[in-house]
Each structure stands twice: as structure tokens, then as C-alpha cells.
Design brief:
The protein is of the alpha+beta class. The protein is about 40% helix and about 20% strand. Strands 3-2-1-4 form a four-stranded mixed sheet, covered by helices on one side. Bound molecules: zinc ion (ZN). Zinc ion binds next to helix 2.
């Protein structure tokens, strides 16, 4: 279990240092701003959606390692997925980090998102891990204003 934890830690640090899809998107169809005042995580999310498919996604901003890694991994996972699929993945991810995942659920089916399973032991960090996802949902709804975790 410790080895696994170290591996997860490594993946999170790697993504926070070298985030994927970390740039502004000039021709985005959906944008949203997310803010977690508890930690200071603050990101802009950019999406290009066509025919219900997330064709492209990127983000830019500043935050702790967990929030940045979560945003980075999220962008790489939802790119090319339908809005419906992205929402389903978020539901499972949310259950995972809040410790409410079904015992029979195969965590490996979440791919790299599984590295956040340890977050459920740190309730304060749940908001860091889910900020990008909440921002995604609001971007898809074209909800104006800042998505705050508070
Ligand atoms: Zn944070």
C-alpha cells in the first residue's frame, strides 16, 4: 500500500510540475473560472465543444499540487469524450475523493484519476481535487461568474 501511495504521489507531483493542456484557448466555445478560497486555487478553464463532444480543453492558473494535477489529468481524460461521459466520470471521481465509492467499484476503470483515492482521507483537499471538475460542469452549462467551492 505504501508503494502505491508513493506512486500516486509521484503522478500528482509530475502533473503539477508539468501540467498537460496548460494554456489559454483563443477560440473556446465555453469558458469558466474556478476558485477555492480555502486553499487559494484559482483556474480558468477553456473548452471547445462540438456536437456534444469535448473536442479540446485547456486550463491556466495557479494552485496547489493537488488542484493543478487534478485539472491536468482531467483535461487529458475528458478530451474527445461526450459531455455525458465527462459528467459520468465526474460522478465516479467525486464519489472516490469523498470516500463514497461503492466497494465493488473498480477504481482502475477511472484510469489516472485513481491517484486521488487517498484524498478521501483529507476532507480539506477534496475541494482542491474537485475544483477543476466543478468548473467544468459550470463551463458546460455556460454559467456566468466564478465557480467557488464555498
Ligand atoms: Zn488546493
Amino acid at each position: 500500500m505504501n508503494d502505491l501511495r508513493e506512486l500516486y504521489q509521484e503522478v500528482i507531483l509530475d502533473h503539477s510540475k508539468h501540467p498537460k493542456n496548460y494554456h489559454k484557448m483563443e477560440d473556446a466555445t465555453h469558458v469558466a473560472e474556478g476558485y477555492n478560497p480555502l486553499c487559494g486555487d484559482h483556474f480558468n478553464l477553456y473548452l471547445k465543444v462540438e456536437d456534444g463532444i469535448i473536442k479540446d480543453v485547456s486550463f491556466l492558473g495557479a494552485g496547489c499540487a493537488i488542484s493543478k494535477a487534478s485539472a491536468s489529468i482531467m483535461t487529458s481524460i475528458i478530451k474527445g469524450k461526450s459531455i455525458e461521459d465527462a459528467e459520468k466520470i465526474f460522478q465516479n471521481f467525486h464519489s472516490l475523493v469523498t470516500g463514497k465509492i461503492d466497494k465493488n467499484f473498480d477504481i482502475n476503470s477511472l484510469g489516472k484519476l485513481a491517484v486521488f483515492s487517498g484524498v478521501s482521507e483529507y476532507p480539506v483537499r477534496v475541494k482542491c481535487a474537485t475544483l477543476a471538475w466543478h468548473t467544468l460542469i459550470n463551463a458546460l452549462k455556460n454559467k456566468p461568474g466564478i465557480t467557488s467551492t464555498e
